[in-house]
């Protein structure tokens, strides 16, 4: 018997092959890093009635009240994430979305015309209007 | 005018290439029967034949065997001139170019596994380029590139090892 099956196969590898394998593996890892990187957001952008009313850095805790046509929407920013803490809208979709942490994420409180989005990533929408 | 008879003389080269291409075509057809989880990810077993031919008979034969395999394989599978045919032709041409360059690597240090990896990565590169330019004109095609590249690494390694094994065991196809 000529050793374990694994050894028999590895015998076919030459020095340069190991090098090629390593370079190729590095290329694979790099492609994952390049293509699947969710760009980390660093700012939360708050809009009211389509206009930007605040850009909040995500590195410190902050609460912001934004006035809209039907009341006040409260935005909360925490380390690396942001959410709509409360909203006067009837269905509460934007509140129930919870914390946003991925680049490009958006929570829209349509009745009160307030939106919260994070920068970075691909913008999944072209524009917002109410 | 006398009757003219077209005579095709079959050289030893022709027979050898035909035999090797037949082996590659058989592998292509057999592989098409294997269910695979992701479209576009397949082992490319026929490339084992290409590698053995490159190693033993040189690039010209490898190119003949590969192109004949792509053509005949697509005819047998009903894929001729379908998108899959162009993708596989683009991939094969890219790998042949890579092998044309890679064959000059010193054989003392670089064995069939290196050739196999070069060919596999070039194959994916060629396919993605054609897919991007022609079939899916959107950068979204590159989203799956990491998966394809990882598959190319795994199958490049395994095909290369199998080719190296066939070459050293003397059981490689084409022995007359």
Architecture overview:
The complex is a heterodimer of chains A (130) and B (176). Chain A is built from 3 helices and 7 strands, in the order H-H-E-E-E-E-E-H-E-E. Chain A is of the alpha+beta class and 130 residues long. Chain A folds into 2 domains: 5-35; 43-118, N-utilization substance G protein NusG, insert domain (mini-chromosome maintenance (MCM) complex, domain 2), CATH 2.60.320. In chain A, the strands form 2 sheets. A 4-stranded antiparallel beta sheet of chain A has the order 2-1-7-6. The longest helix of chain A is centred in the first third of the chain and has 21 residues, at 15-35. In chain A, 24% of the residues are buried. The model of chain A has no long low-confidence stretch (mean pLDDT 86). In chain B, helix 1 packs antiparallel against helix 2 (46-57), helix 2 packs across helix 6 (145-169) and helix 5 (112-135) runs antiparallel to helix 6 (145-169). Chain B has one domain (12-169): Arp2/3 complex 21 kDa subunit ARPC3. Chains A and B meet through helix 2 of A and helix 5 and helix 6 of B.
Layout: helices, strands, pairs:
The complex is a heterodimer of chains A (130) and B (176).
Chain A: H1 5-10, H2 15-35, E1 43-48, E2 51-57, E3 62-68, E4 71-78, E5 81-86, H3 93-96, E6 106-109, E7 114-118
Antiparallel strand pairs in A: 1-2, 1-7, 3-4, 4-5, 6-7
Chain B: H1 12-32, H2 46-57, H3 59-77, H4 83-102, H5 112-135, H6 145-169
How many strands, what sense, and barrel or not for the largest sheet of chain B? none
CATH architectural designation of chain B: Orthogonal Bundle
Portion of residues within helices of chain B: 55-70%
CATH architecture of the largest domain in chain A: Sandwich
Q: Might you state the CATH topology name of chain B?
A: Arp2/3 complex 21 kDa subunit ARPC3
**Number of helices in the DSSP assignment of chain A:** 3
Overall tally of structural domains of chain A: 2
The count of helical stretches of chain B stands at 6
Tally of separate domains of chain B: 1
Low-confidence sequence ranges of chain A:
none
Structural class of chain B: mainly alpha
Indicate the multimeric state.
Answer: heterodimer
Query: CATH homologous superfamily name of the largest domain in chain A?
Result: N-utilization substance G protein NusG, insert domain
Q: Strand share of the residues of chain A? A: 25-35%
CATH class of chain B: Mainly Alpha
Shape category of chain A: rod-shaped
Which class do the helix and strand fractions of chain A yield? Answer: alpha+beta
- Taking Cα atoms only, what radius of gyration of chain A do you get, to the nearest Å? 24 Å
Overall geometric form of chain B: globular
Helix content of chain A: 10-25%
